[in-house]
Design brief:
Oligomer: single chain
Order of helices and strands: EHEEEHHEHEHEH
Structural class: alpha/beta
Distance between the termini: 43 Å
Number of strands: 7
Amino acid sequence: MSAEQKAPPDPWWLQFPAVKSTPERRDVAYLEELIRRSSETTHGVDFAVIDVRGTDRTGSQVKDSIPYRAQDFYPQIDAFGERFKAVPEVFFYCGSSNGRGPRVAGWYQDWLNTYGITSSKALVLNGGIKAWVERYGTDQSLTREVEEVAASEPTK
């Protein structure tokens, strides 16, 4: 490599600890059923859905999902853990849930394991938003456009 050529930057996740846990995956139909049973379940109490996409967070998202950009997640893990440690099932997703979603879910599960917390567990939404949109993209009771989300989200 010549002096003019620069090595590509390291992937963002290398600045954080390696994930030890391998959270379970759940099919989109499993989450769909939880959302539809809203008279019996409450988002944020019985389950939570976390969208870890960043600049690619466009188009649709699972209704009521909470944005936590993957690149910013680990420095906020203690606050996140305290907020969600009593929520039995915390789902994480990104575009296809092959990189960021499982990684962030793993960090959360590692945090739970470190503190011996068993009241919550991290889950990966299998197939990510792509699988969700393929199955439920036109169902407004389950999916909403990101533009709607951006206008309604509180500032962190």
